[in-house]
């Protein structure tokens, strides 16, 4: 299939994690005794301009992103989690921080190879009033903005990306 010479298309996304310590008065029943936090790792579109009643709207990434594999630390059962449709995220509990390999699988018509990036899961606040944040169980977020670059895409991918 023909690639479009000289064409580059960028598509933004965000990836990252959010974590909160367990409420000592209300620990999740299913969590192992050594676990201390609930967390989520995710890949999403970027926020769209917020209009009243439409918070948390993000751009649709599923027209170019088919599925996402999250590779957790080996201490997790089934550490490789394949998420086949949005929302592309994994929710877990745990006690420690580690690097998560996030692998993007693009839509099949794109002919693009999978691409991997890394995210450092953060459970603990490292700046600000750390004791206060711990006491208030403030959510710890680590979120990055990124872009995927499709270089010389095939026509079929160009069409889905540009709505043609
Ligand atoms: C550390 N290098 O030692 C890191 C590893 C592993 C985290 C952290 C739970 C796993 C389970 C979990 O939080 N693993 O469910 O057993 O700090």
Automatic annotation (TrEMBL):
Keywords per UniProt: Coiled coil, Nucleus, Transcription, Transcription regulation
Main location: nucleus
Entry GO terms, CC: chromatin; nucleus
Subcellular location: Nucleus
Keyword Transcription: yes
Location of the YEATS domain: 3-164
Alphabetical GO biological process terms: regulation of DNA-templated transcription
Origin: domain of life: Eukaryota
UniProt protein name: Protein AF-9 homolog
Species of provenance: Knufia fluminis
Keyword DNA damage: no
């Amino acid at each position: 299939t023909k690639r479009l010479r000289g064409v580059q298309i960028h598509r933004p996304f965000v990836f990252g994690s959010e974590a909160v310590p367990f409420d000592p008065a209300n620990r999740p029943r299913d969590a192992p005794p050594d676990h201390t936090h609930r967390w989520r790792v995710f890949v999403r579109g970027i926020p769209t301009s917020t209009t009243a009643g439409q918070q948390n709207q993000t751009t649709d990434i599923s027209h170019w992103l088919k599925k996402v594999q999250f590779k957790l630390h080996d201490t997790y059962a089934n550490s490789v989690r394949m998420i086949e449709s949005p929302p592309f995220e994994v929710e877990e509990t745990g006690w420690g921080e580690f690097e998560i390999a996030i692998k993007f699988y693009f839509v099949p018509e794109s002919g693009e190879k999978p691409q991997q990036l890394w995210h450092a899961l953060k459970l603990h606040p490292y700046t600000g009033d750390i004791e206060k944040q711990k006491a208030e169980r403030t959510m710890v977020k680590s979120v990055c903005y990124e872009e995927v670059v499709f270089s010389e895409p095939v026509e079929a991918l160009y069409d889905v990306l540009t709505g043609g």
